[in-house]
Amino acid sequence: MKSFALTAVTLAAAALVWHAVPSFAETARRVPAPTADLVAAPTAAKTETAVFAGGCFWGVQGVFQHVKGVSNAVSGYAGGEASTARYQQVGSGRTGHAEAVRITYDPQQISYGKLLQIYFSVAHDPTELNRQGPDSGTQYRSTVFAQNAEQARVAKTYIAQLDQARAFGKPLATTIEMSKNFYAAEAYHQDYLTLNPTQGYIVVNDLPKIDDLKKLFPESYKAVPALVNVAKGG
User: How confident is the model at residue 41, as a pLDDT?
Assistant: First the structure.
């Protein structure tokens, strides 16, 4: 479980705390795009939904809020039951939940495959098993919560493509789970990166991901994030 005590830690001290823990941002890369057969033609649907888990949801939400074509990205929990979808319980690692982000996007502006490419490239390290940076436990696992059979097919095939290309030098640990409900997290977790840009954890672990998104995917980056709490955040 992440410690909120970091809000009182100086940035210099925070950097020392995690100096020995390599940030994924240090090795972030634009992985190969999905092959043509995985990029579906735009549909008539105005919005579609994707759910990804990749460590602390603050950073994953922050990344996708800056992606063109994404109208909403909500932090929450997926993989377990509604009765245990609470931060304190999920932090135990015994609920089956993972910290996840539900992304609402326009398929005519961005494809599911492109979202996956960004997810694997800058949102998290998909080779880590049940951990990301300083956070460990099954609640921080790398998981694609497929919303339908087609998403599961695309994700499975793309993972195989990246493994075959040895895009990371070692196999991806990302799993695919279906038929799992998503539950929005508590209000104080929403837009956390945007609202707390000087918090030690955010500075060390998450802001570099936004920089990598801008650097590696300039065509998909938007400067103004799609906030959940628009009035409060902007």
Answer: 59
